[in-house]
Amino acid sequence: MTTLAFLGLMALVQPPIVFWVDTRFGSDWVWGMPFLYVYLGAVYFALIGVLLWAVRGTGRA
Amino acid sequence: MESWVVATGLVFLYILVTIVLGVLANRAMSLDLEDFLLYGRKAGFVVLYLTVVATYHSAFAFLGSGGFFYRHGIGFWEAGTWTVLMGAITYTLGVRIWALGKRFGYITPADMLADFYESEAVRVVVALVSVLFTILYIQVQAQGLGYIISVASGDRISFEVGTLILMIVAGGYLMAGGLRAVYWTDVVQGVWMYVAVWAGALVLTERLFGGPLALWRRVAAERPDLLSLPGPEGFFTPGMWIGMTLALSFGIVLQPHIMIRYYTAVSGRTIKWLGATTPIFLMTLYIPAAMVGLGGALVLPDLAIPDQIFPELLVRYAPAWLTGLILAGATAAAMSTLDSILHANMTVLTRDVYQRYIARDRSPKHYVWVGRGIVLGLLIIGYVLSVRTFGFLVTLVTLSGAGALQLLPGTLGVCYPTRRPFTRSGVLAGVGVGLLVLYLTLVTYPNAMGVHGAVWSIGVNFAVCFLVSAFTRTPSQETIVRIHGAIEDYVYGSGDEGLERALKER
Predict the structure, then answer these.
(1) Which residues of B are less than 8 Å from A55 in CB distance?
(2) Each residue of B349-375: b (16+ CB within 10 Å) or e?
(3) B220 partner at 20 to 30 Å CA-CA among A9, B124, B251, B486?
(4) How does residue B348 score in pLDDT terms, banded at 50, 70 and 90?
(5) What is the pLDDT of residue B113?
(6) Does B277 reach chain A within 8 Å, measured CB to CB?
(7) ipTM above 0.90, yes or no
(8) For B55-109, how does the pLDDT look when each residue is reduced to its tens digit (9 = 90+)?
(9) Which of B325, B293, B286 is nearest to B307 (CA)?
(10) What is the CATH number of domain B3-30+41-395?
(11) Which residue, B2, B11, B56, is CA-closest to B311?
């Protein structure tokens, strides 16, 4: 489950999705910052959340 | 007092602190090879965390990232992908490397690959690739150190002299205290660099633009080309994005200065926590770097060397004492990586080449002294490269990662049991062809079809490795059972406790 979540989120910040996001929402702004900047940051934090979830949930590699 | 004196003086004060730590580490060190090279395999979470992040982030992150944002815009925020991926690789692959190192006493990456593939040729090739491509990394740090001192002193201390002084200091405390000195100084350097980047970026943004949100508005109004992909010069194409992600995650993990850190952990659990938490530090360091680079593009649009944007902004727009403290942080970023790479290359050359092929069965003291001589040699090579050739810091590091990336098929073959493992011929052929393709796609046809050479080379490497391995002799069944059995036992069986038990039984 954690592996799938990580790969799914990672796909969101890789081509072609990230380029589609930039084309579609590149001119939008969120909380006074460019959409792409906020979007990438949010996905990165979600990815870290998955890693923390994994390490807390299992004692094995 | 003139501002350049204050700024340069604080950088030198910081250098004094690192020298003191090196001397203290020397007093705590025994002349035991495992202690000198691997910190006695006793590194706990906090020390390992700070040394890994300080080593991973170098002049590349502190200076190079600002330069890349400055020139290529928001696309460099893709840096988050490789930092997060680095954590995941540590969590999955790193823990297996640690378990094998602990179980079979490996010290270098080549130890592990040569043992599994039963090949001295694999050992030599891995050692040479490791050293060759990390020399570029030495050049990056040396170049960064020279920029810092020359900008801080207003060119009163030249780039060449600044580089020389700081390289001597890093090499000196490494030679004195071994990996213990590197780890102790990395703890200070890791904290200092993080605070320094954030403090510098926030102060500059406030002074120049009235805050981060105002900065974003100004960039949108004056340089909107910096806020979209692929950037003003069309650099961040999909192929470059994927290539940099691969080269700067897998490629950096496979370099000896990171792999050796996995061996030094006190437990597998430590490695897993490391993997889950290091991206927090690594990724968030690029947030202020974006402010510096994008803000700098508005304020100083015609800078000849974009990598100097951060120190240039500080010197011009921040108080001297703050500039000194922050540039000391930049020095920390470069030195913490430089000392780690010097140490890793010293370990590889001492252990995989000198001890094995030139002088066997000498005393630990002898090898420690030979290691010190190797550090001196590497310092000279790094210095000459840094003063004779110049390149974008990010470009050099990506090239370095792309080279080390060629070790990926061989490493995966050791750490992930499969029905038919790779063979030594497959691994050697893959590395050879991969390096050739890397040369062709970086030098002859640079980034062909908009795809980074790292992608081309690792793709061909894997294909050749699979193909040749299908027709050549696999490692002996005994070795496969011994090493893959240890992995399966650790990962799917008894974990840390079982490994400890196996070590006691041995």
Answers:
(1) 91, 272-273, 275-276
(2) bbbbbbbbeeeeeeeeeebbebbbebb
(3) A9
(4) confident
(5) 96
(6) yes
(7) yes
(8) 888 777 777 889 999 999 999 999 999 999 999 999 999 999 999 998 998 988 9
(9) B293
(10) 1.20.1730.10
(11) B11
